Amino acid sequence: MATIRDATPSDVPAIHAIYAHHVLHGLASFEEVPPTVEEMRARFEAVRSAGKPYLVAEVDGAVAGYGYASAYRARSAYRYSLENSIYVDEGVRGRGVGSALLQALIARCRAGPWRQMIAIIGDSANAASIGLHLKAGFRHVGVLERVGFKHGRWVDSVLMQLELSPEDPA
Q: 118: which residues sit within 8 A by CB, 6+ positions away?
């Protein structure tokens, strides 16, 4: 079973390793070259300094996945909307780590001022991520067809949305 906790700066190398694998071998990220550990550290600090949650899942004492919420878009009118990101180590896929991370991230975001969470999922064929988000209560709101080109093929972006709070922030 995974233990979910706040990520710390010492987790960044493990976070980097998980993400680098997804960049090089998957379609969840549209990056094609893994960022450096230093760049991942800067991204981690940007999320945390913005007051948004950044979590890790530990399995047997090792970081097995991570998830965070970031601004959906930079313009101020989007300030109550978040984009979620969940990445799981290949060695623990199918063991509930992604679900535990996403549920904890949603709970943390519901406790904040945010109203909507957006998932932008790489590849229409990414049944695992789409299913994970459906199970967590997200609804399918659209597909941007063939908007990325990675690993020699065109890739869709699937858009899913979860209402975090039915109340409009004051």
A: 72, 81, 82, 83, 84, 159, 160, 161
Distance CA 133, CA 105 (A): 12
Q: Side chain identity at 52, as an amino acid letter?
A: K
Between strands 116-122 and 81-88, the pairing is parallel
Q: Using H for helix, E for strand and C for coil, what is the string for 84-101?
A: EEEEECHHHCCCCHHHHH
pTM of the model: 0.95
DSSP symbol at 60: T
Cβ-contact 85, 72 below 8 angstroms: no
- The answer to whether residues 83 and 72 touch, using CB atoms and an 8 Å cutoff, is yes
* Interval 136-151: pLDDT, tens: 999 999 999 999 999 9
- pLDDT at residue 170, as a whole number: 62
Neighbours of 43 (CB within 10 A): 19
Mean pLDDT of 39-46: 98
What is the pLDDT, as a whole number, of residue 169?
A: 61
